[in-house]
Write a structure and sequence with these properties.
single chain, DNA-binding, WH_DNA-bd_sf, zinc, 2 domains, three-stranded mixed beta sheet
Length: 147
């Protein structure tokens, strides 16, 4: 098993769970399609190719558990689907997202662009920020060039 799964295995074990073949298959589907922000049904379609016995309910339950354990993060793009990605393994904030209102493309913005703002908020409000999610809506370069 890849060292990529060592952190996941540890997190699951600490919470009293095992890294089962089903969980590995789901994590692999997300990892192998990094940046695509797959929804539950898309993950299921990928997983069932190599695990035809796995049901959609198993995928839903597993994603819920993995989200509770902060192994995966959900992303709601207000398109009726919840999408998933792996939590950042460097202990930093997750990246930000640019969402095209025309074609629905999702572009990841790496780096924490809000560090200065977070520090100001923490000082002014005596509030410890643990994480944040930020989405910008607009028109991507491809759609912008079509206009």
């Amino acid at each position: 098993m890849s060292s990529m799964y060592d952190g996941y295995k540890k997190k699951l074990k600490e919470a009293g769970y095992k890294l089962t073949p089903q969980r590995i298959a789901i994590l692999s589907a997300i990892e192998e399609n990094k940046g695509l922000h797959l929804n539950t049904e898309e993950i299921y379609d990928i997983v069932k190719q190599s695990n035809p016995e796995m049901g959609l309910a198993t995928v839903y339950r597993t994603l819920q558990l993995l989200e509770e354990l902060e192994v995966v993060s959900s992303l709601n793009l207000e398109d009726g689907c919840v999408r998933y990605e792996l939590y950042s393994d460097d202990g930093q904030h997750n990246h930000h997202h640019l969402i095209c209102s025309n074609c629905g493309a999702v572009i990841e913005v790496e780096g924490d662009l809000l560090e200065e703002l977070e520090n100001k908020i923490e000082k002014e409000y005596d509030f410890k920020i643990l994480d944040h999610k930020l989405k910008f809506y607009g028109i991507c370069s491809e759609c912008k060039n079509l206009v």
